[in-house]
Design a protein that fits this description.
With 352 residues, the protein is mainly alpha-helical. The protein folds into two domains: 177 residues, Peroxidase, domain 1 (Orthogonal Bundle), CATH 1.10.520.10; 129 residues, Peroxidase, domain 2. The strands form two sheets. The chain has a two-stranded antiparallel sheet with strand order 1-4. Strands 2-3 form a two-stranded antiparallel sheet. α9 crosses α10 and α11 packs across α13. The longest helix is centred in the last third of the chain and has 16 residues. It is globular and about 55 Å long. It starts with 14 loop residues before the first helix and ends in a 9-residue tail after the last helix. Its main location: secreted. Its EC number is 1.11.1.7. It comes from Triticum urartu (Red wild einkorn).
Length: 352
């Protein structure tokens, strides 16, 4: 079986961040130490299997976590299918035909439920899976504060309003991350997630044919599989150097004008983040440390007060309050259904 390089460098400076999250957000890395002591090993095992099948899945799970946290906090709402009472996030513009990895979260949840029923939230599983995906692809690891609850609702309009797009300007990115109490530096560090994953031709076509701040050889390379018309769903790696390795090559690409998306190259285009991008391009350790800190801050985004939450379980007939409202057997996300059978094979569209 394939082996994965992992990095376990201790980020001792994160202790303060963890304490803040544990206090203010009521989250703790030891939240399940007694109620579900094997949680971390279960998640790690399933993520290892998932990446052995498809290394791209690490990026897909990381993207799910980002898209979950940016819409009313890290509450698992991206995992919910539409019901008669709400239109959820799965088919919002940034997620439709591109958000993927739901079956991996389902597989983890199934094993977790067998070990510790009605105890661990899907939101926490997603947070752990995102961390392990990064580490299994060669990136850093960190202690994940736990104790999140799962949302009982989701909003397509909120997803459309809160998730930045591939054509976003630097000013827009700074504003949208700032709305989540994430600094421009946090935004630049989190953007390093684009060192793994893929994007569709339709999202970078304008850049490779019309923008001037792009390396000519790189543009020509991408044009081979992304024609001026047609091929919208053709995929290209976000990182031309190490597509499935979590490292600082993304920033070296930006310095060399090899950013795939317009929003990527905006980070190094004569603006406020140029110096930080150059620092990350020269220092893998600084990028890793700042990425972990920013991930912890993002992972501390919780639902607004008044949002109804629960710990979702696999068996909808016992606990799932939405079972009677579903119009088909696919309950989605951690709702325990054979989603692939209902929705068809996962489309290879979109980013990550």
């Amino acid at each position: 079986m394939a082996a994965f390089a992992t990095r376990s460098a201790p980020f001792l400076g994160l202790a303060a961040v963890l304490c803040v999250l544990a206090g203010a957000q009521q989250l703790s890395p030891s939240f399940y130490s007694r109620s579900c002591p094997n949680l971390a090993s279960i998640v790690r095992s399933e993520m290892t299997s998932a990446l052995q099948r498809e290394r791209r899945m690490g990026a897909s799970i990381l993207r799910l976590f980002f898209h979950d946290c940016f819409v009313n906090g890290c509450d698992g709402s991206i995992l919910l299918d539409d019901t008669s009472t709400f239109t959820g996030e799965k088919n919002a513009g940034p997620n439709a035909n591109s958000a993927r990895g739901f079956e991996v979260i389902d597989a983890i949840k199934t094993r977790v439920e067998a070990a510790c029923r009605a105890t661990v939230s899907c939101a926490d599983i997603l947070a752990l899976a995102a961390r392990d995906g990064v580490n299994l692809l060669g990136g850093p690891t960190w202690s994940v504060p736990l104790g999140r609850k799962d949302s009982r609702t989701a909003s397509q309009s909120a997803a459309n309003a809160n998730l930045p797009g591939p054509g976003s300007s630097l000013a827009t990115l700074i504003t949208m991350f700032g709305n989540k109490n994430l600094s421009p530096g946090d935004m630049t560090a989190l953007s390093g997630a684009h060192t793994i994953g893929r994007s569709q031709c339709q999202f970078f076509r304008n850049r490779i044919y019309n923008e001037r701040n792009i390396n000519a050889s790189f543009a020509a390379l991408r044009q081979r599989t992304c024609p001026r018309s047609g091929g919208d769903s053709n995929l290209a790696p976000l990182d031309v150097q190490t597509a499935d390795g979590f490292d600082n090559a993304y920033y070296r690409n930006l310095v060399g004008q090899r950013g795939l998306l317009h929003s990527d190259q905006e980070l190094f285009n004569g603006g406020s983040q140029d110096a930080l991008v150059r620092q990350y391009s020269n220092s893998p350790s600084q990028f890793s440390a700042d990425f972990v800190t920013a991930m912890l801050k993002m992972g501390g985004l919780l639902p607004s007060s008044g949002t109804q939450t629960e710990v979702s379980t696999i068996n909808p007939t016992i606990v799932d309050v939405y079972a009677a409202e579903q119009s088909h057997k696919c309950l989605g996300g951690c709702r325990g259904a054979d989603e692939e059978a209902c929705r068809g094979e996962e489309g290879q569209w979109g980013g990550w």
